[in-house]
Structures are given as C-alpha cells and as structure tokens.
Amino acid sequence: MKTPHARISGIAAYVPEYRLTNNELSKMIDTTDEWIMQRIGIKERRILIDSRKATSDLAVEAIGSLLKKTQTLPDDVDMLICATITPDMPFPATANIICEKLRLNNAWGYDISAACSGFIYALVTAAQFVETGRYKKIVVVGAEKMSSIVNYQDRAVSPLFGDGAGAVMVEPAIDENGVIDHIFHVDGAGRHFLHQKAGGSLNPASHHTVDNKMHFIFQEGQTVFKFAVSRMAEVAAELMQKNGLTHNDLAWLVPHQANMRIISATTRHIGIDANKVMINIEKYGNTTAATIPLCLADYESQLKKGDKIILVAFGAGFTWGGVYLKWAI
After folding, report:
1. Which of 125, 231, 250, 289 sees the fewest Cβ atoms within 10 Å?
2. Active site includes 295?
3. What average pLDDT values come out for the chain (329 residues) when binned by 10 residues?
4. Catalytic annotation, pick one of 96, 177, 259, 286
C-alpha cells in the first residue's frame, strides 16, 4: 500500500488590534522611525495589551478562523501541535490549554519549542503523523506573545518583536501536492548568542533574576545575523538541488521574518527574484514561530494550486531548516 503524504488544506491567522508604531516606540527608547526602518525594516508590530490574555488566546483566534474556513467540526480534529517559546505557563503545554478552550475533545497534542524554526518543525512533525495513516486532521499553530519577554528599555531588541498567531490544517494529500521534503539542523553552541537566561531549571525565578532583567530576550545581533543569512541560504539551496528545482521552478520563498536585512541578504545569497519572496515584516515585526504562517495567510490570494514553495527559518538554539512543499489549496 502506498504511504500517504500530507498537505496543507487550510490556513488562517490572527494578530492583536493594538499597533505599536515606531513613533510611539521612539518615546520609550532612544530611536527613530528612520533608524528602525533602515536597520530592521519594521514599521509597526501588533501587541496583545490585555494582561489577562496569553499565547493560547492568540492561537484560539487563529484556529477558530481555520476551523470555520475549512468547515471542520472541533470533534473532527485528531491532534494539535503548538509551536511557541512564550507558553502560557511552563506546564501544562499550551496545546492542552488551546484544546480545552476550543473544545477539541478528541484531539491530543503538545508544544514544540524551536524558537523561530518552531512552525516548520511542527509542520513536518504533523505531516509525518498523517503519513502513518492514523491521523486525518491535524492543526499546527505558531503562536507567540513576544511582548511578554521583551525589555522595552533595550534598544537592541525592543523594535524587533510582535505578537501573533498563524494556523494550518494538515490532512492526507489528494494528489501530488503537499509537503514533499525537509532539511533540519540544530547547533546548541548558538544558545550563547540568542536566549532567555532565566526562568528554566538553570536559573529559576528569584529576586536576583528579576532585578537583573534575566527573563527578557538577549541577542548578540551581529552573530545572529551572520548565521541566519548563511544557514537559511544554504538550506534553501540544498533543498532546491536535492529536488531538482531551478529558480524558475520556484513560485515562492517564504523566509522567517527576522529583520529586513536578513531577508534581503538571504534572497541575494540564493539568487532568487525578490518578487518571489514573501515579506510582511513591516506590518508585524518578528513574531517568531508565527511569521511563516502569517506570511502564507497574507499571500494566500496570490497562491495557486501546485505552486512550488520553500519555507526557511532560523532561530535561537541555534535551530534552522527548510521545507519544500507544493501548494495544495
């Protein structure tokens, strides 16, 4: 019997209403709209300002739209995988909370913590569950409340991140379109350059960790930039070569929206036409695990069935990788 492969059968996204603009940010730290646009390419980022709400609430909005759009009943969902580094709580998994809030009574699931690579890791994980033949409908959501771990007095980090969620339905493919191939990597040495120092078992929360602002994102920008560009470009090129793709064959490159300079440099390294690169960082900033599904949702009207697409991401850890798929909707 032929092993089934998996496809994305639906996509939806959600971002909070509140827009933190560069002009507003310039009143909080020593920066300007011009400096942020030149260095990062972000005009505004969406922020979940309701302190009573968390990452699961962003995910619920995106998944609720997905279920409605795909005409899927909650009881028909078999599994849910949530990619996030800003879980509601250290435990239980945010996926558990989402299932309860949406009454996905027959679903089981868990979280994947791979930072900016989280969504593509989760997508391939879901695809492989579908390929077993046991699962028919799996929801994958990348959701982040990054504002909860950003120090808004840190000029190097505060302009970068936003909040949001994007979700896809993964089902058995009905033709040759779907998730075709992937290449993933990790390098734990990268943890020194991009991390959240406290909150885990190494540095549990204490007066010392709070007073020293150790629960916020730390990033050594130049090192991260260098690795992100080279690794995303390498993995995209490797996927293309492995699958016999030329630049003309590729309909879209969907890079993680880290900052505009990384996206531009990656595009140049690959040698792909800039018109084939999905970009929405100006509107949302870096939403970590949510950037790629937010891009796909924003560009959905331009996608055609059979389009050959490569998703690439690079994140803390370091984690990085790429997915080659043929659009199936």
Report:
1. 125
2. no
3. 80 98 92 90 97 97 98 98 98 98 98 97 98 97 98 91 98 96 95 92 96 93 87 94 94 95 90 94 97 98 97 95 97
4. 286
Q: Report residue 66 as tokens.
A: 């997905």
Nearest alpha carbon to residue 36 among 149, 194, 164, 156: 156
Instruction: Choose the CATH number for 6-175 among 1.10.3720.10, 3.40.47.10, 1.10.443.10, 1.10.287.3610.
Output: 3.40.47.10
In the chain, where does the domain assigned CATH 3.40.47.10 lie?
6-175, 179-326
CATH class of 179-326: alpha beta
Note the pTM of the prediction, 2 decimals.
Answer: 0.96
CB atoms within 10 A of CB 34: 10
Q: Strand pairing partners for 120?
A: none
Of the residues 116, 177, 182, 295, only one is catalytic, namely: 116
Tell me, yes or no, if 99 is annotated catalytic.
no
